[in-house]
Fold Peptide ABC transporter ATP-binding protein.
Amino acid sequence: MLSVRDLHVHFKVRGEGFFPEKRVLKAVNGVSFDLYPGETLGIVGESGCGKSTLARALLNLIPATAGQVVWLGRDMSGASSADWQAVRKNVQMVFQDPLASLNPRMNVLQIIGEPLRTHRPELPASEVLARVKAMLVRVGLNEAQLYRYPHEFSGGQCQRIGIARALILEPKLIVCDEPVSALDVSIQAQIINLLKDLQKQLNLALVFIAHDLAVVKHVSQRILVMYLGRVMELADKHELYADPKHPYTRALLSAVPIPDPKLERGKQIQMLSGELPSPLRPPTGCVFRTRCPHAFERCAAEVPALEAVNERSQAACWLYR
Ligand SMILES: Nc1ncnc2c1ncn2[C@@H]1O[C@H](COP(=O)(O)OP(=O)(O)OP(=O)(O)O)[C@@H](O)[C@H]1O
């Protein structure tokens, strides 16, 4: 459904401290992965590792600096805005801050109906109304809320409205950028379950971005772990939780509480020490090496490529070469 090859998104930013001249910040630095129809791919990593930039570049909301994004077999390099418009009919986004992502001057009918008015102008108003009503029920809201405004809803309800807006064009994929991070924990579970149900009913593919592994566990089939703009590990969910390969994934997993005391992490426990290096001056070689307990000489000298460790996981780590 989607193939991403060696994708780069670089920003030119003002330098800091002793380096006031403009510098290049590589927010996404050579990311490759595939997404299959109906699949959920979780993308995790600490704040600032490039998850949102990657998500936006997939839809050209931020232009890629280099690399390929191939949608349904079509290479989008050099595509016109009309070509991207056609992709966005099939691919929608749900954003992190539910209230901020809704136009405060529009009521629910206008918000959810807007994509229909843009992409399906031939539909009569009565049909738009019928589709919006049906979608509202689908996401757990009701018709009585059609003419209300965003500020009249809770965070969880606003996110339901955002999901309804994303689904109204019957897309094949939804990119969810930290859709539950701004919500209370009890509401998070409701929204995750809603997304899971909708995915099953509509055979949707989901890209689900979160900053911790506990959240993506319940929705993803495969998980991509990012650090400083690079992919550290890409693995089948069960493999990743049972036997994480990359030391960064192990560190992230150590921060996730284990509900079942019979499950032992044993020697895999590893806390993440030190701070995320500045993305303006990333370490040479493997970007994780300055915080990695297993780093050795080669890690500083050469960048490890993402390669298969077994048929269920790939890691970018010299420990496996
Ligand atoms: N428009 C921009 N101009 C300059 N730098 C940017 C821009 N957008 C993002 N960045 C930088 O790119 C890096 C990646 O940011 P991004 O928001 O993609 O990370 P993230 O993993 O999604 O973080 P978070 O979880 O906090 O949203 C960060 O260092 C950020 O400061």
